[in-house]
């Protein structure tokens, strides 16, 4: 199923991994009969009419050219891991408590000793400049306004020093290990100098995932096909707010790339081809010794690896399959979360990501033991749809959903949530 074809279909919580991966048609909503009443997600321009993250998704699909939608939405190979993220969330049902005084509801959490007003942060995502000019800056501004962390990617398009100047931002830096120790050490030193609160080392991308649908839009020389170029003509809004500003560059790492490979596409493939295949626990221990603040390891799903992260002195782990974009047919972070929490107890901060698009999704993650969740595509839909205001709207939607769902669930605070509020 192409990304565009899902825009007008209701999302069924009963979709199996196999059905989603093979492109089977989504089950109809139980509220409709033979297409009646007719339902469409909002695709216009008025954010006040946006009700859900899926509305922002529909708006993003209207605005972006198909090659950008493919980069935003796609997963690797059969996209079974991509499907599993949603299926894992759908496999849990909520068990509400009745007759609870829920006049006062608190959705704040503590992350590394600091109170955070919402139980989520914005995940590190690369090449956001494909969706909007100054995209990382806009995401970071929205995060600062909401009081939540923003994790800036190594492959972001705005310099980390510029992002660090945003007032009130909880700035975390995500590190890809590529190009040798000198590159790694230089990026760590820069992140320390500008005062980043945490270093997030991603360990599941030493090989680039086989994103087949993405590569179909490229020529053998890794340039966009003529069809992909011509499709942009029909998306003037994207041209005006993105392409007209010039192709983005990987501002934080471009100086490490040989001059003959510094064009947009050439630099991306050069970096991709120089990831450190030798990255192991010994090297991770070296990174731990270099970084004086909070250290998180992102991309762990094996519970033994999560235990080892605690043993080498990591402060946290992000349970993640990289949004279904790396190894196909893996489990979701949510699948690994309960056992991970049982094994490590309170020794590690555990954060989970993967398909979080509803307040109930976030509550499920917290109930299973997560200290917080990460938002990837959810905030990118807002960014692509309407820039900074779209990101604000995505955060507002989830804040309102969490608040309402807490009242319906019968809990006053997220600290009161636990696995007893869930059933399979």
Brief summary of the model shown:
The protein is built from 16 helices and twelve strands.
Secondary structure layout plus pairing:
Blueprint: H1 17-21, H2 53-63, H3 66-73, H4 80-90, E1 93-94, E2 109-111, E3 114-116, E4 120-122, H5 135-146, E5 149-152, H6 160-164, E6 170-175, H7 181-193, E7 198-202, H8 212-215, H9 226-231, H10 236-241, H11 264-272, H12 281-290, E8 294-300, H13 303-311, E9 316-319, H14 333-344, E10 349-352, H15 359-367, E11 372-375, H16 377-409, E12 422-423
Parallel strand pairs: 4-11, 5-6, 6-7, 7-8, 8-9, 9-10, 10-11
Antiparallel strand pairs: 1-12, 2-3
Helix pairs in contact: 2-16, 5-16, 13-14, 15-16
Structure notes:
The strands form three sheets. This protein has an eight-stranded parallel sheet. Strands 1-12 form a two-stranded antiparallel sheet. The protein has a two-stranded antiparallel sheet with strand order 2-3. The protein is an alpha/beta fold and 424 residues long. β9, α14 and β10 form a beta-alpha-beta unit. The chain folds into two domains: 71 residues, no CATH class; 253 residues, Aldolase class I (TIM Barrel, Alpha-Beta Barrel). The chain contains 16 helices and twelve strands.
Features of the shown structure:
424 residues; alpha/beta; 2 domains; two-stranded antiparallel ribbon; 38% helix
């Amino acid at each position: 199923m192409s990304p565009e074809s899902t825009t007008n279909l209701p999302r069924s919580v009963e979709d199996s991994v196999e059905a989603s991966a093979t492109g089977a048609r989504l089950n109809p909503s139980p509220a409709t009969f033979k297409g009646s009443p007719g339902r469409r997600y909002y695709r216009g321009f008025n954010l006040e009419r946006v009700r859900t993250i899926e509305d922002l998704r529909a708006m993003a699909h209207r605005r972006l050219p198909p090659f950008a939608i493919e980069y935003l939405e796609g997963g690797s190979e059969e996209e079974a891991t991509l499907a599993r993220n949603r299926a894992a969330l759908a496999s849990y049902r909520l068990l509400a408590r009745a007759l609870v005084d829920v006049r006062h509801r608190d959705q704040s959490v503590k992350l590394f000793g600091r109170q955070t007003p919402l139980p989520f942060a914005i995940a590190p995502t690369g090449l956001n400049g494909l969706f909007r000019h100054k995209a990382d800056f806009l995401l970071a501004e929205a995060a600062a306004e909401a009081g939540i962390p923003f994790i800036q990617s190594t492959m972001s398009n705005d310099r980390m020093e510029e992002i660090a100047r945003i007032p009130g931002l909880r700035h975390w830096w995500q590190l890809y290990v590529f190009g040798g120790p000198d590159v790694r050490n230089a990026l760590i030193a820069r992140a320390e100098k500008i005062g980043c609160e945490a270093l997030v080392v991603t360990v599941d991308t030493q090989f680039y995932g086989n994103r087949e649908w993405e590569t179909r839009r490229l020529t053998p020389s890794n340039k966009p096909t003529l069809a992909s170029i011509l499709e942009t003509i029909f998306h003037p809004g994207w041209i005006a707010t993105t392409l007209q500003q010039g192709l983005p560059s990987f501002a934080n790492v471009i100086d490490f790339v040989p001059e003959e490979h510094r064009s947009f596409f050439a630099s991306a493939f050069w970096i991709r081809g120089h990831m450190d295949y030798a990255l192991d626990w010994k090297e991770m221990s070296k990174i731990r010794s270099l970084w004086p603040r909070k250290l998180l390891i992102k991309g762990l799903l094996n519970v033994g690896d999560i235990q080892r992260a605690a043993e080498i002195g990591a402060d946290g782990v992000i349970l993640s399959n990289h949004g279904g974009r790396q190894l196909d047919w893996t489990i979701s972070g949510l699948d690994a979360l309960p056992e991970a929490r049982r094994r490590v107890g309170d020794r590690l901060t555990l954060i989970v990501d993967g398909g979080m698009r509803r307040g109930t999704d976030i509550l499920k993650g917290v109930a299973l033991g997560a200290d917080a969740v990460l938002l990837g595509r959810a905030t990118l839909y807002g960014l692509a749809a309407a820039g900074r205001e779209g990101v604000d709207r995505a955060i507002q939607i989830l804040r309102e959903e969490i608040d309402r769902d807490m009242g319906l669930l019968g809990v006053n605070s997220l600290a009161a949530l636990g696995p007893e509020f869930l059933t399979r």
